Amino acid sequence: MLIDRPRIPIRDVVLYGLWPGFIKVFIYRLKGYRIGRRVSIGFGSIISGDRVEVGDHTSIGFLTVIRGTEIRIGACVTIGSTTFLDTPYIEIGEGSRINEQVFVGGLQFPDSRFVLGRNCQVMQMTFINPSRSVIVGDDSGIGGHSLIFGHTSWLSQFEGYPVDFDSVEIGRSVSLAWRVFVLPGSKIGDGSVIGANSLVRGTIPPRSMAVGFPARVVSRESEFPKRMDDGQKADVFRNIVAEMIRFFEGSGLVCRGDGRVYEIRRTARGLWRRSPRAWKLGVSEDGTESPAEVDVFLSLREIPSNVRSRLEKHGVAWIEIAGKARSRFSNDLGDEVSLYLRRYGVRTLRRSPLSEAARAGPESEAARMAPSLSAVKKDDGRVS
Protein backbone atom coordinates (compact mmCIF):
# COMPACT_ATOMS: atom_id res chain seq x y z
CA MET A 1 0.00 0.00 0.00
CA LEU A 2 1.27 3.47 -0.88
CA ILE A 3 -0.71 5.21 1.86
CA ASP A 4 0.06 3.86 5.30
CA ARG A 5 -2.61 4.87 7.79
CA PRO A 6 -3.30 2.28 10.49
CA ARG A 7 -6.81 2.28 11.89
CA ILE A 8 -5.43 2.39 15.43
CA PRO A 9 -2.30 4.54 15.96
CA ILE A 10 -0.52 1.88 18.02
CA ARG A 11 2.81 3.72 17.88
CA ASP A 12 1.36 6.88 19.45
CA VAL A 13 -0.50 4.86 22.07
CA VAL A 14 2.71 3.13 23.12
CA LEU A 15 4.83 6.30 23.03
CA TYR A 16 2.40 8.68 24.74
CA GLY A 17 -0.79 6.98 25.86
CA LEU A 18 0.63 5.04 28.79
CA TRP A 19 2.16 8.08 30.51
CA PRO A 20 0.28 9.84 33.33
CA GLY A 21 -1.84 12.74 32.11
CA PHE A 22 0.37 15.54 33.42
CA ILE A 23 3.42 14.04 31.70
CA LYS A 24 1.49 13.73 28.44
CA VAL A 25 0.53 17.39 28.64
CA PHE A 26 4.19 18.30 29.18
CA ILE A 27 5.33 16.16 26.23
CA TYR A 28 2.64 17.56 23.94
CA ARG A 29 3.68 21.10 24.80
CA LEU A 30 7.27 20.19 23.91
CA LYS A 31 5.96 18.96 20.55
CA GLY A 32 4.47 22.39 19.93
CA TYR A 33 0.87 21.61 20.82
CA ARG A 34 -0.98 24.48 22.49
CA ILE A 35 -2.41 22.83 25.60
CA GLY A 36 -4.33 25.00 28.07
CA ARG A 37 -4.32 24.99 31.84
CA ARG A 38 -5.75 22.15 33.92
CA VAL A 39 -6.24 19.86 30.93
CA SER A 40 -6.85 16.23 31.87
CA ILE A 41 -5.93 13.40 29.48
CA GLY A 42 -6.85 9.90 30.64
CA PHE A 43 -4.79 6.73 30.66
CA GLY A 44 -4.24 5.29 27.20
CA SER A 45 -5.61 8.40 25.47
CA ILE A 46 -3.67 10.27 22.80
CA ILE A 47 -3.89 13.39 20.65
CA SER A 48 -2.10 13.18 17.31
CA GLY A 49 -2.00 16.04 14.81
CA ASP A 50 0.18 18.56 13.00
CA ARG A 51 -1.49 21.58 14.61
CA VAL A 52 -3.22 21.05 17.94
CA GLU A 53 -4.94 23.48 20.32
CA VAL A 54 -6.73 22.42 23.51
CA GLY A 55 -8.47 24.96 25.75
CA ASP A 56 -8.32 25.29 29.51
CA HIS A 57 -10.18 22.88 31.80
CA THR A 58 -10.81 20.33 29.05
CA SER A 59 -11.11 16.67 30.05
CA ILE A 60 -10.46 13.60 27.89
CA GLY A 61 -11.40 10.15 29.24
CA PHE A 62 -9.30 6.99 29.11
CA LEU A 63 -8.55 4.99 25.95
CA THR A 64 -9.68 7.83 23.67
CA VAL A 65 -7.97 8.60 20.36
CA ILE A 66 -8.09 12.04 18.74
CA ARG A 67 -6.26 12.11 15.42
CA GLY A 68 -6.22 14.65 12.60
CA THR A 69 -4.16 17.16 10.69
CA GLU A 70 -5.60 20.17 12.52
CA ILE A 71 -7.28 19.73 15.89
CA ARG A 72 -8.86 22.59 17.79
CA ILE A 73 -10.69 21.87 21.04
CA GLY A 74 -12.18 24.73 23.03
CA ALA A 75 -12.24 25.34 26.77
CA CYS A 76 -14.29 23.27 29.23
CA VAL A 77 -14.86 20.49 26.70
CA THR A 78 -15.49 16.94 27.94
CA ILE A 79 -14.71 13.93 25.75
CA GLY A 80 -15.70 10.57 27.17
CA SER A 81 -13.76 7.33 27.40
CA THR A 82 -13.17 4.94 24.49
CA THR A 83 -14.14 7.59 21.96
CA PHE A 84 -12.44 7.73 18.55
CA LEU A 85 -12.19 11.01 16.61
CA ASP A 86 -10.27 10.54 13.37
CA THR A 87 -10.75 13.31 10.80
CA PRO A 88 -8.29 15.66 9.04
CA TYR A 89 -9.95 18.76 10.56
CA ILE A 90 -11.55 18.56 14.00
CA GLU A 91 -13.05 21.56 15.76
CA ILE A 92 -14.99 21.36 19.03
CA GLY A 93 -16.44 24.48 20.58
CA GLU A 94 -16.28 25.67 24.17
CA GLY A 95 -18.39 23.82 26.73
CA SER A 96 -19.34 20.93 24.44
CA ARG A 97 -19.48 17.31 25.51
CA ILE A 98 -18.90 14.10 23.57
CA ASN A 99 -19.97 11.03 25.52
CA GLU A 100 -18.38 7.61 25.67
CA GLN A 101 -17.92 5.33 22.65
CA VAL A 102 -18.56 7.93 19.98
CA PHE A 103 -16.89 7.26 16.62
CA VAL A 104 -16.07 10.02 14.13
CA GLY A 105 -14.24 8.76 11.08
CA GLY A 106 -14.56 6.27 8.24
CA LEU A 107 -14.27 6.94 4.52
CA GLN A 108 -12.96 10.49 4.07
CA PHE A 109 -10.97 12.93 1.93
CA PRO A 110 -7.97 15.12 2.86
CA ASP A 111 -10.29 18.12 3.31
CA SER A 112 -12.92 16.33 5.45
CA ARG A 113 -14.10 18.35 8.43
CA PHE A 114 -15.94 17.69 11.66
CA VAL A 115 -17.05 20.90 13.39
CA LEU A 116 -19.06 20.80 16.61
CA GLY A 117 -20.23 24.18 17.90
CA ARG A 118 -20.27 25.55 21.42
CA ASN A 119 -22.35 24.04 24.20
CA CYS A 120 -23.29 20.92 22.22
CA GLN A 121 -23.59 17.30 23.25
CA VAL A 122 -23.13 14.05 21.33
CA MET A 123 -24.53 11.06 23.18
CA GLN A 124 -22.91 7.64 23.40
CA MET A 125 -22.61 5.07 20.60
CA THR A 126 -23.08 7.66 17.85
CA PHE A 127 -21.30 7.16 14.50
CA ILE A 128 -20.41 10.22 12.42
CA ASN A 129 -18.78 9.97 8.99
CA PRO A 130 -17.57 13.35 7.64
CA SER A 131 -16.68 12.24 4.11
CA ARG A 132 -16.87 15.88 3.09
CA SER A 133 -17.89 17.77 6.20
CA VAL A 134 -20.27 17.50 9.12
CA ILE A 135 -20.97 20.83 10.77
CA VAL A 136 -23.10 21.11 13.91
CA GLY A 137 -24.20 24.53 15.17
CA ASP A 138 -24.04 25.87 18.72
CA ASP A 139 -26.28 24.47 21.46
CA SER A 140 -27.32 21.38 19.48
CA GLY A 141 -27.71 17.83 20.75
CA ILE A 142 -27.28 14.49 18.98
CA GLY A 143 -28.94 11.51 20.62
CA GLY A 144 -27.27 8.19 21.24
CA HIS A 145 -26.98 5.47 18.59
CA SER A 146 -27.45 8.10 15.86
CA LEU A 147 -25.83 7.73 12.42
CA ILE A 148 -24.65 10.73 10.40
CA PHE A 149 -23.20 9.78 7.04
CA GLY A 150 -21.40 11.92 4.48
CA HIS A 151 -21.44 9.22 1.83
CA THR A 152 -23.54 6.43 0.35
CA SER A 153 -21.47 4.12 -1.82
CA TRP A 154 -21.04 0.40 -2.17
CA LEU A 155 -22.22 -0.85 -5.56
CA SER A 156 -20.58 0.36 -8.79
CA GLN A 157 -21.59 3.74 -10.13
CA PHE A 158 -20.73 2.41 -13.61
CA GLU A 159 -23.61 -0.02 -13.20
CA GLY A 160 -26.04 2.78 -12.47
CA TYR A 161 -26.06 2.64 -8.70
CA PRO A 162 -26.10 5.95 -6.77
CA VAL A 163 -22.88 7.14 -5.18
CA ASP A 164 -23.09 10.29 -3.05
CA PHE A 165 -20.39 12.22 -1.24
CA ASP A 166 -21.81 15.35 0.33
CA SER A 167 -21.70 17.49 3.44
CA VAL A 168 -24.17 17.50 6.32
CA GLU A 169 -25.25 20.72 8.02
CA ILE A 170 -27.02 20.72 11.37
CA GLY A 171 -28.02 24.19 12.54
CA ARG A 172 -28.04 25.87 15.93
CA SER A 173 -30.24 24.67 18.79
CA VAL A 174 -31.17 21.49 16.93
CA SER A 175 -32.27 18.36 18.76
CA LEU A 176 -31.75 14.92 17.24
CA ALA A 177 -33.43 12.23 19.30
CA TRP A 178 -31.93 8.77 19.70
CA ARG A 179 -31.36 6.57 16.65
CA VAL A 180 -31.66 9.28 14.02
CA PHE A 181 -30.11 8.50 10.62
CA VAL A 182 -28.91 11.54 8.63
CA LEU A 183 -27.97 10.99 4.98
CA PRO A 184 -25.40 12.98 2.94
CA GLY A 185 -26.51 16.36 1.64
CA SER A 186 -29.00 16.88 4.47
CA LYS A 187 -29.52 20.29 6.02
CA ILE A 188 -31.41 20.75 9.28
CA GLY A 189 -32.45 24.30 10.08
CA ASP A 190 -31.93 26.17 13.35
CA GLY A 191 -34.21 25.24 16.23
CA SER A 192 -35.59 22.06 14.64
CA VAL A 193 -36.36 18.78 16.38
CA ILE A 194 -35.99 15.35 14.76
CA GLY A 195 -37.95 12.52 16.36
CA ALA A 196 -36.49 9.16 17.40
CA ASN A 197 -35.82 6.50 14.75
CA SER A 198 -36.19 9.04 11.95
CA LEU A 199 -34.36 9.09 8.61
CA VAL A 200 -33.37 12.58 7.45
CA ARG A 201 -32.78 13.21 3.77
CA GLY A 202 -32.82 16.65 2.18
CA THR A 203 -33.71 19.89 3.93
CA ILE A 204 -35.61 20.32 7.18
CA PRO A 205 -36.78 23.95 7.60
CA PRO A 206 -35.87 25.96 10.71
CA ARG A 207 -37.98 25.72 13.86
CA SER A 208 -39.93 22.66 12.84
CA MET A 209 -40.52 19.13 14.03
CA ALA A 210 -39.90 16.20 11.70
CA VAL A 211 -40.52 12.51 12.38
CA GLY A 212 -40.70 9.31 10.41
CA PHE A 213 -38.81 7.14 7.96
CA PRO A 214 -38.18 9.22 5.91
CA ALA A 215 -38.68 12.20 8.21
CA ARG A 216 -41.56 14.49 7.33
CA VAL A 217 -42.35 17.86 8.85
CA VAL A 218 -45.34 17.55 11.16
CA SER A 219 -45.18 20.95 12.84
CA ARG A 220 -43.80 24.30 11.66
CA GLU A 221 -42.91 27.73 12.98
CA SER A 222 -45.75 29.72 14.54
CA GLU A 223 -47.04 26.41 15.92
CA PHE A 224 -43.68 24.95 16.94
CA PRO A 225 -42.06 25.57 19.30
CA LYS A 226 -44.82 26.75 21.59
CA ARG A 227 -44.76 30.48 22.26
CA MET A 228 -44.62 31.34 25.95
CA ASP A 229 -45.39 34.68 27.56
CA ASP A 230 -43.58 36.06 30.59
CA GLY A 231 -46.17 34.70 33.00
CA GLN A 232 -45.86 31.17 31.68
CA LYS A 233 -42.08 31.35 31.84
CA ALA A 234 -42.26 32.54 35.44
CA ASP A 235 -44.54 29.61 36.36
CA VAL A 236 -42.14 27.13 34.75
CA PHE A 237 -39.21 28.77 36.54
CA ARG A 238 -40.88 28.51 39.96
CA ASN A 239 -41.81 24.87 39.35
CA ILE A 240 -38.27 23.96 38.30
CA VAL A 241 -36.75 25.67 41.34
CA ALA A 242 -39.20 23.86 43.64
CA GLU A 243 -38.42 20.50 42.00
CA MET A 244 -34.70 21.20 42.21
CA ILE A 245 -34.92 21.84 45.95
CA ARG A 246 -36.85 18.58 46.41
CA PHE A 247 -34.17 16.81 44.37
CA PHE A 248 -31.44 18.25 46.57
CA GLU A 249 -33.31 17.12 49.69
CA GLY A 250 -33.80 13.64 48.25
CA SER A 251 -30.06 13.51 47.56
CA GLY A 252 -29.21 14.04 51.21
CA LEU A 253 -28.88 17.82 51.41
CA VAL A 254 -30.70 19.92 53.98
CA CYS A 255 -32.56 22.83 52.33
CA ARG A 256 -34.38 25.73 53.94
CA GLY A 257 -35.71 28.81 52.21
CA ASP A 258 -38.53 31.19 51.45
CA GLY A 259 -38.58 31.06 47.63
CA ARG A 260 -36.11 33.92 47.32
CA VAL A 261 -33.12 32.69 49.33
CA TYR A 262 -32.35 29.05 50.13
CA GLU A 263 -29.77 27.74 52.55
CA ILE A 264 -28.44 24.40 51.34
CA ARG A 265 -26.40 22.41 53.80
CA ARG A 266 -24.37 19.27 53.34
CA THR A 267 -24.22 17.13 56.46
CA ALA A 268 -21.08 15.28 57.52
CA ARG A 269 -21.31 11.51 57.26
CA GLY A 270 -18.70 8.98 58.17
CA LEU A 271 -15.30 9.35 59.74
CA TRP A 272 -13.50 10.59 56.64
CA ARG A 273 -16.20 12.85 55.22
CA ARG A 274 -15.67 16.56 55.08
CA SER A 275 -17.15 18.77 57.76
CA PRO A 276 -20.67 20.17 57.33
CA ARG A 277 -20.90 22.94 54.80
CA ALA A 278 -23.60 25.46 53.87
CA TRP A 279 -24.26 27.52 50.75
CA LYS A 280 -26.88 30.12 49.97
CA LEU A 281 -28.81 30.24 46.70
CA GLY A 282 -30.49 33.47 45.64
CA VAL A 283 -33.41 33.20 43.19
CA SER A 284 -34.84 36.04 41.10
CA GLU A 285 -37.22 36.23 38.15
CA ASP A 286 -36.11 39.60 36.79
CA GLY A 287 -32.37 39.46 37.54
CA THR A 288 -32.21 42.93 39.05
CA GLU A 289 -32.43 42.07 42.74
CA SER A 290 -29.53 40.18 44.22
CA PRO A 291 -30.12 38.93 47.77
CA ALA A 292 -27.26 39.68 50.10
CA GLU A 293 -24.79 37.08 51.29
CA VAL A 294 -25.39 34.39 48.67
CA ASP A 295 -22.98 32.05 46.95
CA VAL A 296 -25.03 31.51 43.77
CA PHE A 297 -27.52 33.84 42.10
CA LEU A 298 -30.06 32.21 39.73
CA SER A 299 -32.15 34.44 37.47
CA LEU A 300 -34.87 33.70 34.93
CA ARG A 301 -34.18 36.82 32.87
CA GLU A 302 -30.86 38.21 31.76
CA ILE A 303 -28.87 39.83 34.54
CA PRO A 304 -27.92 43.46 33.83
CA SER A 305 -24.20 44.02 33.35
CA ASN A 306 -23.93 46.23 36.43
CA VAL A 307 -25.51 43.53 38.59
CA ARG A 308 -23.20 40.89 37.09
CA SER A 309 -20.20 43.08 37.84
CA ARG A 310 -21.31 43.52 41.43
CA LEU A 311 -21.85 39.78 41.85
CA GLU A 312 -18.46 38.94 40.39
CA LYS A 313 -16.79 41.55 42.56
CA HIS A 314 -18.10 39.76 45.64
CA GLY A 315 -17.27 36.29 44.32
CA VAL A 316 -20.87 35.24 43.69
CA ALA A 317 -21.45 32.71 40.90
CA TRP A 318 -24.42 33.69 38.72
CA ILE A 319 -26.64 31.79 36.28
CA GLU A 320 -29.15 33.35 33.90
CA ILE A 321 -31.64 31.19 32.04
CA ALA A 322 -32.76 33.67 29.37
CA GLY A 323 -29.21 34.23 28.13
CA LYS A 324 -28.15 30.60 28.72
CA ALA A 325 -25.07 31.96 30.45
CA ARG A 326 -23.20 31.63 33.72
CA SER A 327 -20.26 33.30 35.38
CA ARG A 328 -16.78 32.20 34.37
CA PHE A 329 -16.04 31.02 37.92
CA SER A 330 -18.26 28.70 39.92
CA ASN A 331 -18.52 26.62 43.08
CA ASP A 332 -20.05 23.28 44.10
CA LEU A 333 -23.58 24.65 44.37
CA GLY A 334 -23.35 26.55 41.07
CA ASP A 335 -22.21 23.38 39.30
CA GLU A 336 -25.10 21.40 40.78
CA VAL A 337 -27.67 24.02 39.74
CA SER A 338 -26.27 24.19 36.19
CA LEU A 339 -26.30 20.42 35.92
CA TYR A 340 -29.91 20.22 37.12
CA LEU A 341 -31.07 22.85 34.62
CA ARG A 342 -29.79 20.66 31.78
CA ARG A 343 -32.69 18.31 32.52
CA TYR A 344 -34.97 21.00 31.17
CA GLY A 345 -32.86 21.84 28.12
CA VAL A 346 -31.09 24.83 29.70
CA ARG A 347 -27.38 24.51 28.94
CA THR A 348 -25.44 27.50 30.18
CA LEU A 349 -22.16 28.66 28.70
CA ARG A 350 -19.54 30.34 30.85
CA ARG A 351 -19.28 34.02 29.99
CA SER A 352 -16.05 36.01 30.09
CA PRO A 353 -14.81 39.42 28.95
CA LEU A 354 -13.62 37.70 25.77
CA SER A 355 -17.08 36.42 24.88
CA GLU A 356 -18.61 39.75 25.87
CA ALA A 357 -16.34 41.54 23.41
CA ALA A 358 -17.07 38.96 20.75
CA ARG A 359 -20.79 39.66 21.05
CA ALA A 360 -20.20 43.25 20.02
CA GLY A 361 -18.83 42.34 16.61
CA PRO A 362 -18.44 39.48 14.16
CA GLU A 363 -16.77 36.45 15.69
CA SER A 364 -13.86 34.88 13.96
CA GLU A 365 -13.99 31.11 13.96
CA ALA A 366 -10.66 30.99 15.75
CA ALA A 367 -11.73 33.35 18.55
CA ARG A 368 -15.03 31.58 18.98
CA MET A 369 -13.71 28.05 19.12
CA ALA A 370 -10.60 28.53 21.24
CA PRO A 371 -11.38 31.00 24.03
CA SER A 372 -9.16 31.31 27.04
CA LEU A 373 -10.34 30.32 30.46
CA SER A 374 -7.51 31.96 32.33
CA ALA A 375 -10.03 33.98 34.29
CA VAL A 376 -11.68 30.90 35.79
CA LYS A 377 -11.83 31.00 39.57
CA LYS A 378 -12.81 28.01 41.64
CA ASP A 379 -14.06 29.05 45.04
CA ASP A 380 -15.99 26.82 47.41
CA GLY A 381 -16.07 29.39 50.18
CA ARG A 382 -19.08 31.49 51.09
CA VAL A 383 -19.01 35.17 50.33
CA SER A 384 -20.77 37.65 52.52
Please supply descriptive tags for the structure shown above:
about 375 residues, alpha/beta, UDP N-Acetylglucosamine Acyltransferase, domain 1, 10-stranded mixed beta sheet, 7 helices, 36 strands, about 20% helix, globular
General shape: globular
Q: Give the number of DSSP strands.
A: 36
According to CATH, what is the class of the largest domain? Mainly Beta
Largest sheet: 10 strands, mixed
What does this structure look like?
The protein is of the alpha/beta class and 384 residues long. The protein has two domains: 10-219, Hexapeptide repeat proteins (UDP N-Acetylglucosamine Acyltransferase, domain 1, 3 Solenoid), CATH 2.160.10; 230-369, no CATH class. The strands form five sheets. A ten-stranded mixed sheet has the order 2-5-8-11-14-17-22-25-28-29. Strands 1-4-7-10-13-16-21-24-27 form a nine-stranded parallel sheet, with helices on one face. The longest helix has 21 residues, at 230-250. It starts with 9 loop residues before the first helix and ends in a 15-residue tail after the last helix.
Topology:
Blueprint: H1 10-17, H2 21-30, E1 34-35, E2 40-41, E3 46-48, E4 51-54, E5 59-60, E6 65-67, E7 70-73, E8 78-79, E9 84-86, E10 89-92, E11 97-98, E12 103-104, E13 113-116, E14 121-122, E15 127-129, E16 133-136, E17 141-142, E18 147-149, E19 151-152, E20 164-165, E21 168-170, E22 175-176, E23 181-182, E24 187-188, E25 193-194, E26 199-200, E27 203-204, E28 209-212, E29 215-219, H3 230-250, E30 253-257, E31 261-266, E32 277-284, E33 296-299, H4 305-313, E34 317-320, E35 325-327, H5 332-341, E36 349-351, H6 353-360, H7 365-369
